[in-house]
Each structure stands twice: as C-alpha cells, then as structure tokens.
Amino acid sequence: MLAELLAALGPAGCLTGDRVAEAARSDASRSGQTLPLALLRPSSVAEVSAALEICHRHGQPVVPQGGMTGLAGGANPRSDDVALSLARFAGVEEIDPDAGTMLLRAGTVLERAQEVAAEAGFLLPIDLGARGSCQIGGNIATNAGGLRVIRHGMTRDNLLGIEAVLADGRVVSSLGRMVKNNTGYDLRHLFCGSEGSLGVITRAVIRLRPLPEARQTALCALSSYRAVLTLLDMARKTLTVSAFEAMWQDYFAFNQQIARLSLFANPPPFAVILEAEGAGLEPLLEQAFEAGVIDDALVAQSQTDARRFWEVREGHAMETALPGLINLDISLPVARLDDFAQACRAGLRARFPDAHVSFYGHVGDSNLHVAVALADNAEDGGHEVDRIAYDLVRGFGGSISAEHGIGTLKRDWLGHSRSPVELAVMRQIKAALDPKGILNPGKLLPA
Amino acid sequence: MLAELLAALGPAGCLTGDRVAEAARSDASRSGQTLPLALLRPSSVAEVSAALEICHRHGQPVVPQGGMTGLAGGANPRSDDVALSLARFAGVEEIDPDAGTMLLRAGTVLERAQEVAAEAGFLLPIDLGARGSCQIGGNIATNAGGLRVIRHGMTRDNLLGIEAVLADGRVVSSLGRMVKNNTGYDLRHLFCGSEGSLGVITRAVIRLRPLPEARQTALCALSSYRAVLTLLDMARKTLTVSAFEAMWQDYFAFNQQIARLSLFANPPPFAVILEAEGAGLEPLLEQAFEAGVIDDALVAQSQTDARRFWEVREGHAMETALPGLINLDISLPVARLDDFAQACRAGLRARFPDAHVSFYGHVGDSNLHVAVALADNAEDGGHEVDRIAYDLVRGFGGSISAEHGIGTLKRDWLGHSRSPVELAVMRQIKAALDPKGILNPGKLLPA
C-alpha cells in the first residue's frame, strides 16, 4: 500500500519514518502522542482522490489534518493510521467581487485568506485566535466559531459551496456561488462539522462581507445576570454588535490581577466587553446607565485601551498561573447561563474544595467557558470535572461542545447532548458514506 | 393497514373516500390531479410516529403535506399514496425572549407564527407571499426563500433546532436553542430542503430578530447591468438593505403598462426597487446619481407609493394578461445574470419567435425569474422552454431552482445542477434513512 501511495503522490507527497513531522502527532490539545504510519501531502484534488482510493481498497484508516490547531483531539493519529495533510493544496483560486465570494483550497491558512479578501476590499467573516496557522479546510471540518460569531455566524453560515473527496476516492463537488440553491440535499452542512469522518474537504466557496466600519469598545460593570441580558437586548436593538463577552466576577478578578491591571478596582459581579461597528455605543451606554442596567463603563479611547479589556478576557496568562488548567466549552440557552454557572461552581467545589473555578464566555452566542484548575493533580480529576459539568449541561438542555467539536476528548460524552436516535442517525449516515469506516475512525462517534 | 391507521389516529385523523379534501390533490402549481388513498391528520408527534410505523411496516408510500403552497409539485400524491397533513399539529409552544427563539409545531401557519413573534416584540425573519396559508413545516422542508432573504437568509439560516419523524417512526429530536452547537452531524440542514423525502418535520426552533426600523423604498432607473451591480455594492456598504429587486426593461415595461402606472414614462433598461431599514437611503441615491450609477429615482413618500413600486415588481396581473404563463426560478453568479438573460432571450426567441419573454429577480440573492408565455399552446412547449433555459443554466454554472425546490416538476432536470456523484451521495443518504423508500417517492430524486 505504501508503495502505491508513493507512486501516486511522489516522494514529497508520501512521507514515512523520520520524515514524518513531529507536528503530525497532535493538535493543540496536546493529547496526541503517536506518529502515524505515513503522512500524505497531496498537492491536488486528483492526488487526494488517488490517495483515498488506495487507502479504501486496503481498508487503511485515514486521519485528515489541517493546521493542527483543534482542541478536541480530532486530528490526532494512531500508530496504524495514515495522516493526510492538505498543507500543499493551498491558495485562493478566485474572488468574485460582484457576488462577494471566494473560492479557495482547503490547505489555505485562514490569515492568508483574510489578507487576500482585504486586498480585494472585503472582510472574510471567519476569524479565530489560531488564524496564523489554522487552515480553512479544518475550519470547515470543525465548523469553527471564534471571534465574529455574534456578527457573522459560525463557519457554516459563511459557506456557500464545498468540494470533498469521499472515502472511496470519488470527488463530490458542490462549489455553488449562489446564496439561493434549492436543488436537493445540502451537502455543505453535512461535511461542515463532521470532523473528517465523512470526507476530506478539498475546496470551498466562502461568502465575503463588506469591510466593517470602525469598531468601538466598552467594558461595562453590571451587578446581576439579569442586567447582562438586558444590556444584550438593548445592544442588539440599536447597535451592530460585533462582540458581547461576559466575565463572571471570579474570572474578571483573577485575570485582572494576573494582568496587573486595575480596570475596575472593585471587580463587579459581571464585567461585559461590548463592541459595536459604527456609531451609537456611547448613547447606548448612557441610556443603560440611566436605566440602572450598568453601574459603570469604560469606553476605549484607543486600540491600547481596547487591548487591555481583551487581555483580561483572553486570559492568556492563566495557563502559566494555573498549571493543568482545564477549559470547558459549552452552550446553553442564554437565560440559563448564570443558573448553570452557580450549579456548576457548587458541584465542582463540593468535589474539589480548593479548585479554581471561574466563568466567562461569548454570552451573545449562548457560549460559556468554564476555567477549572485542581489544587492537586488527582488521578482522573479531569474526568471528574467533565462528569460534573456535562451532567449539569445535560440537565439544562445544553450542548457539551459549543465550538471546539467532539474529536476524542468529548467523544464519550456525546450522548449527554445527542439522543440515542440522533446517534443512530449519525451512524447510518456514516455507514452510508464510509461503509468501511476508514475516515477518521474513533473520532466523534462513540463506539 | 387503513384499519390500523384509523385505530391509531381516530376518525378525525384518518380520512378516506369522500372525506379527503380536494385540496389534498395539488400544491399551488396545480400540477396534481389525484386524490390519495387516505389523508392522515395526526395531532401529536406520537401520532405522526405511529402513522409512519404502520405505513413503514406495510411498505406504504407517504406524502407529507403542509399548506400546499409549493410550486414544484412536491406535495402532490399519487392514487396509491397516503397523504400526511400536519395541519392539526399547530401552534407556538414557547418563546424565549432572552435567547430570541421560538419553538413551534410544524402545522403552524407562517403568518400566525409571525403574529406571535410580533406580540413578543420580535420579527420572525421568514416571510413569503403565501404566508397566510403556508405552514412552517413546509417552509423548512422546502427551505423557503421569499422576501427577506437578502436581509435574513433562507429558512435554513434561521433554523436553530428541528424534530422529525423518520420513515420507520423513530422520532429524531434536535431541538437545540443554541447558535453554537458543535456536537456531530448537523441534522437540521439535512432535513431542511429535503422535501419530505428523509423524514416528516414535526417541530422546530426558529431564531427571532429584533423588529426592524422603518423601511425606506426607492425605485431607481439604470442604463446598464454593470450599473445595477455597482448600485448593489454601494447599497450593501452603507445601508441595511432589506430588498434589492431588479426588473429588466421587458418586464418593467409590460407590468407598468398592465398596472396602468407611469412610474417611468420611458422604461429604462433596468429598474431596481431598493429598500433599506433605518436611515441613509436618500444620501446614497444622491451619491449614486452624482456618480452616474442611476439615471433617475423615485423615493416612496408613503406606503401607497411603495405599494405601486411593488405592484409592478410582483406582476400579479400577468397571469391574466398572459394565459399559460411559465415562471422559471433560477440562480446564477450575480455578475452573469444579464449575460444569461440575453442568451436565454435569444434562445427562446429562436424557437418561439412570438413568445413573451421577460426577466426580473431578487438580484441581491443571485436569484433570477424568467417569465415566458408562448403565443400558441404548442404541445411540449413548456418542456422546450425548460430545456432551453436549463441547458443555459448548466452552462453558466447556475442552479435550476433558487427557491421553489425540485418536487416533480424539476426532478428530471436535477442533473443539470447536481453532478452524478452528488446525486449518488443523495441516493446513499436517502437509502440509509429510508431504506424502503416510503417517504415521498418519485419526488426530488430522478429515478
């Protein structure tokens, strides 16, 4: 089989032994330990197709890999897997300025695609912290979320067309450029978010947007979660909201301190970063202050000011300050986020009295993150944290993964968010499109 | 089998013979001639499930029916089909004002759902001319387009959760309320647009939006299609565009005349209705006029003015004036719409020298309509029109159905817009979820 792959892809397209890069071991979760049997680097759709046809014939499992920035272990190989990287199939093929669309190859690094869009006078509306190394194919395969969801939706909401190679090597091309296209089953949304288990995405058409007007940013202090929801409602009605990020007191206080900032000397029960495109932020804040919705607000007068607000929100220093930090990514009906936070804090504290527990999230997108650091590295502590939190998520009708996906790390909890019938339907679809089960086996769907 | 259905659904839920309403014969395309074997009217998800379990066991084909306002024949039964109407399973079950979501039953008439949303202070962002009789289940099953697509997207773009009954009676419930939910395959988008061929939609969660600011409407005269595209680009960059409807000269002149209006005494090469929410329309028009993009513009000073613009665009009097009117619904990359119109006009005129041929459409959504009336009712004339137009659509990389769907009327043309591999994948999915092929057989997928 390796000889066939080598013949089909050439020496630069089929690496084995020492030539397999260390980076092929693991995504950014650092949960992968193993090098794959081979690392395939096809440079065309035809080569992706040829590689899959060969692997399919031999029953060889294939793990598609993008920029390896995922957080769920979805691209980590096992020792007898073949990894398939799209890195050599990169670049923007076409921009249609009238339609506002971009056709690009799966291996294109997101930031590069953003730059090409900006040069043509457009915003590429997908953006995330990993933009400098993640690839658009991986963004689509995981339906990446990120920083612009409240304004422009998830990756799938900006996807007009897709091309993928099926397990048996057939190329299924649905590279439509039209917003309206009611001609049968929507294959875009089937491959988007399927984490490489239904096909290898090779190209896509993305919808571009006009470049945004200047953004204004404020940091608001609020005394209740009800006030947070009221501010969100007010903002949605009058502003073009481009971020609405809430920090619970525990998170804000901790991160303000380690960042050595004093934005609110007395950390309020809730701190919200409200960012809007165009005008209207300050009048809205005045109105919210007069109505008693916010207790205080800092309006950024410069990029530096805004960066300070975001520094506390992003909390990059947390991982150093709290070794072994666990970061959960869940979503819940927005009205229940604080009820969940209270129940989750209580549940975790009951089991781990000395743990750090704090909450923050993209509240405008119903997305909550939970930061947990256990005082002692108790064996199975992480599993216990998952169990406590995900049992609550299930009770609240939420989702165990808002944006990071399932991969291997959440695979065994999937039944907390999807019913047995949903799982059965997913398995029926998987079996229909990949009957030999060679595409990313062991990921996403529990055994 | 009918005895079993009667026992499961009761006499009000299982109608046969004379008790089957005439309306069960055909959707609004008037292409259906036949009454079904029985008309099922379940009043709960459990009854839908029971009915499908019985039909599945007997290998009985089932045609799901909503408000029968479709235009592709997708809900028309054959004489040995059982029709299944959701009309008795109607109503809004829940509005979450914090999340801006509505949980409702499939049989809810769209207009009723819009009213309930408005009473709660929200816009239900799905709207179409048939609002008074279409049902939300049908809107989802056909991924309805309509009047708000440029602002809020197609039905699928406003769909957060879905519940459907599978062919064998299993209920698959994905009624999430969260914008972010990355937990495996997206079943919403699989059922949405599948035209009743994969499951019977029973409930859904729709995302609501803030009520819009007042709309301003203008009718603009332009002398080239390039100018139309430039105006669209300018409008998108500075306005919240809620409609951008272009009429080619042939369409505008004909409909202005039969409406006995004189909006532009000399019909321009292109007339565009531009509608925007909030402020900014008049400054934009001034700027466009100074830049030579528009030659003239009428700004509606009242609802009556705006209605006159829309009367010409909607062309309701056309069907009376042109008996046997054919209305094609296609989409193409927006830059190519006029190239297509010219080629299509030439192709149709070559075959039918005396035909009426005119063009209009939701240009902002890449959606073009072609109105054709043949002078003589030549046998197979409709088929010839389809062939000439859809052959061109294929050549332009367009879609043979922008918003109306496939049903039976476009089924045999589906291969003009979807590749053999795409069709094979659709059939694999269909076979996986409905192995006996009982759900809406003969629709959507060509034999």
TrEMBL record, chains A, B:
Domain FAD-binding PCMH-type, chain residue ranges per copy: 32-211
Record keywords, A-Z: FAD, Flavoprotein, Oxidoreductase
GO biological process, one term: respiratory electron transport chain
GO molecular function: FAD binding; oxidoreductase activity
InterPro entries per UniProt: FAD-bd_oxidored_4_C, FAD-bd_PCMH, FAD-bd_PCMH-like_sf, FAD-bd_PCMH_sub1, FAD-bd_PCMH_sub2, FAD-linked_Oxase-like_C, FAD-oxidored/transferase_4, Oxid_FAD_bind_N
Cofactor or coenzyme needed: FAD
Residues passing through the membrane, by range: none
Protein family: Belongs to the FAD-binding oxidoreductase/transferase type 4 family.
Protein name: FAD-binding oxidoreductase
Organism: Gemmobacter fulvus
